[in-house]
Amino acid sequence: MPFVLAAVMFIAAFLAGVVNSIAGGGTLLTFPVLIWLGLDPKVANATSTVALWPGLFGGLFGYRREMNDSSLILMRLGVISVIGGGVGAWLLIVTPSLTFARLVPFLILFATILFMIQTPVNRWLHLGSVERSTTKAWWTGAMIFQFLSAMYGGYFGAGNGIMMLAALGLLGMHDIHRANGIKNFLGICINSVAVVSFSIAHMVVWPKSLLMAVAALAGGYVGSRTAQRVGRVFIRRAIVVIGFAITIVMLWRMR
Question: Which is nearest to 173 in space by CA: 27, 26, 67?
Fold first, then answer.
């Protein structure tokens, strides 16, 4: 592989790891790079999922001190995430490549819009304290939301972090750092199933994936440790611009 292409992949994966640890949406950086390198859309999505998976561990380790007293949430939503992630991965595997390619611009647009409305979504769904709001109806709603989020994450994943933060907002999770730590754990649950599924289905280009995985792991840790100093507004605006640009280009190519 030419050095320049390897460098582009490494940088994209590192930045994706940073973005995923802070808000989610790193797939919007790695997926188009793999498409640019000529991979089939389904293969690019699977390879990107595997590449960014280690970055979630880096983010989780960075937020480990913020996740005290979260065992109940991790257990309940973790199980739901594994199930939903498996369903989403299966849907991707059985979806024809041409169909998926036609869906990609709209999935990216959907993820970009999620970025744009992140703040009002979290504000609308902060309905109380997670310590006090533990009724059956409360947990049922949160689990349904997380299942749908996990299913989407197993299928495509771009913007899934925002959906999980919204689910945690539904639980009354006001501490953004604790929420990000839990979100990274749930992302690991979702993507672990997806990684195994895509590997069995032979949808992963391993040389590219492993190179990007190293960068994503470093980026995930760096992002989690510098979250309070990083300009989140700048990151969100950059992702929105990239998301809209990719959507326009891909829709133009479909003409």
Answer: 67
Nearest Cα to 235, choosing from 126, 116, 109? 116
What length is written for the chain?
255
Looking at residue 96, its pLDDT comes to: 85
Measure the CA–CA gap between 179 and 185, rounded to whole angstroms.
10
Kindly state the tokens that stand for 72: 């109940």
Sign of CA dihedral 151, 153, 157, 161: positive
Give which of 150, 162, 154 is closest to 240, Cα–Cα.
162
Q: pLDDT tens-digit profile of 51-89?
A: 999 999 988 888 888 777 778 888 989 999 999 999 999
Q: Give the Cα separation of 18 and 220 in Å (integer).
A: 5
Confirm whether pTM is higher than 0.90.
no
Q: What is the pLDDT of residue 147?
A: 93
pLDDT above 80 (res 172): no
Q: What residues contact 254, with CB distance under 8 A and at least 6 apart?
A: 102, 105
